[in-house]
Amino acid sequence: MGHGRRYLVNCSILFAELPLLERPEAAKAAGFDAVEFWWPFPAAAPGDAEVDEFVAAVKDAGVQLVGLNFAAGDMPGGDRGLLSWPGRGAEFRDSVAIAVGIADQLGTEAFNALYGNRLDEVSADEQDDLAAANLAFAAEAAGRMGAVVLLEPVSGSPSYPLLCAADAVAAIERVQRASGASNLRLLADLYHLSVNGDDLGEVVAQHADRVGHVQIADAPGRHEPGTGELDLERHLGALEQAGYAGWVGLEYTPSTNTEESLRWLPRERRAARQS
Prior knowledge:
This protein is an alpha/beta fold. Helices cover 37% and strands 14% of the residues. It has one domain (6-269): Divalent-metal-dependent TIM barrel enzymes (TIM Barrel). It is built from nine helices and eight strands. The two termini are 14 Å apart. The mean pLDDT is 96.
């Protein structure tokens, strides 16, 4: 199993030893043909020069930018997205416009819209209404270029309301019913789902047709495969048997350094194999 599997590197968490703009080149040098990033700018609306530098770094490296997160707030400070955050809608929509502009130049296929933490001062219903409106907006913008918008269950953030696959699927279905959007997908991060208590076999059985992107890290620890107890090979194989033919994003914290943490994946398996 795994023949023809396409791996990519998340350059926001791997190659963190290097400045951000040097990471696409490092990924290419390590044998990968594709990368993804969290929102790569300090602000939701960076200047043109910052955006141009980022695009040039990816182009010059000769890798494809498959996935990109929309702005998600202050991630190191604990923020986990703007979709459901009243008062941050303009920032979110600015980042959607910028992300779509980047994707137009780099062929990006998927955007990850982090939902946002629950807030004490706003009702959950109000936040969910706002998230649905923002998701519909993002889906329309992405759909104009044939891309999908991803919704991701996340662990380790006590106020983040999407914990299991069913939570994200319910939010997706709500937007589909209201707006007709057909390009919303589940981001199945096998680490987050497992840590949050989802049975990965059940996720595949119930939701494989909804999965638009997959990310992996071992658990416990969120390090490279082989450092924990998840049978990632088995779960990826099950997804593929269920019809998933997309990318597998390496989104883990290297237990040592990035180069050593990649030893589990032989170099000849790192290049993209288009089937």
